[in-house]
Amino acid sequence: MDTHDLVATSERRQQHVERVLTSFFSDSHYRARALGAPYAALWQTLERNASGGKLFRPRMVMAAYEALGGTDLDAAAHVGAAFELLHTALIVHDDVIDRDFVRRGNPNVSGSYRDIATTAGIPLPIAEHRGMSVAVIAGDLALFNSYRMLDRSGAEGVVRTRLHDIFDEAMFVSAAGELYDVDFSIRAEPPTVDEIVDMERLKTAGYSFEGPLQAGAVLAGASGEAVHALGRYGRSIGIAYQIVDDLLGVFGDEGDTGKTTMGDLREGKRTVLLAHAVTQPGWAAVETLFGSPELTPEGADRIRSVLEEGGSRRFAEALARDFANRAWEALVTDALPEAVRQEFQPVVASVLGRVR
Which chain positions lie within coiled-coil regions (predicted)? Predict the structure, then answer.
C-alpha cells in the first residue's frame, strides 16, 4: 500500500468514527435540552473536548479489524468510538488530577467552567473548584457512555463478552497506572526506569494500543493466538510511543509537536529521562531547577545539557528503539496474516523515525 492509499484509508476510517460520534452527541444534546440549558451546555463542552484529536485509538481498532478480514465497518467504528469516549473520560479526569485547565492550547472542561465562574465575579479558588467539579461529572458521562457505545456495535454472544473483558482490562490497568503516577509525584525517592516503564504500560499502552488492537481482532473473529500477538505488539509499541513523547516533550520542535518543551521540566514530570538522569553525577547541578514553576528558558537549557551530557537522552532513545523492535518481533508469527504486518509496519517505522 503506497503513501496515498495509506492516507486515504486512514481518512476513511476516521470519517466513519466521526459519524458515529456525531450521531451520539447529537442524540445526547437532544436528551440534555429537555433537562435544561446548563446540562445542554455541559454536553456541548464535552463534545468540544472530545473533538479535534486524531482518533488514534479508533483507527487502531479498525486497522486490526480490516487487516484480519473484518467487513462490518459500522460495528468496528462503534467499538473504536467506545475507546475514544474512554480516552475522553480519562483525559478529563487526568486534567482534574493534575489541576490543569488547558489542553491543546484551549480551555479544557475544568478551564471552561472556571472561566465562566470568574467572568461572573466568583473568586478564583471557588471558580477553579467549580471547574474541576463539572469536569468530574463530564468525565463520568464519557466513561459510562463508552460502555454503552461498545454495546451499540451489535456484537453478540461470546464476541460481546470478550469485548467487554478487553475494555474492562483496559480501564482496570489504566486506573492502576494513574495511581502509580500520582504516587510518584509525592514519593521522596525518584522512581526507577523499570517503575516508569511499568507505569506507562499500565496508564497509556493498555487502553491506547493493546486494548483497541485486541478488540479489533476479536470483532474480526481472529484466533486467540492472533489476539495475543497483537496484544504483545500493542504493549511494546505503546511503551515506545510514550518514551518518544517524553523525549519530544523536552527535546522536540515546538512547531512540530504543538506543545512547549518546558512544560514537562516545569512540572517535574516523572519519565524515563528523569529516572536515568538522577543516577548520573551531573544531575545534582540542576536538581533544584527541575519541577520549579519559575523555571526560565535558560534553566531549561541547563537541564537539557545535563540530560545530554549524562547520556540520559541517548538511553531513552535506545530504550524506545528496543521496545519498537520488540513490537515488530511480536508481529512476526504465523498466527497473523501478512496484511497485519503491512498494516502496522508503518507504525513501527514512525516510532523509529521520531527517535533522532
Answer: none
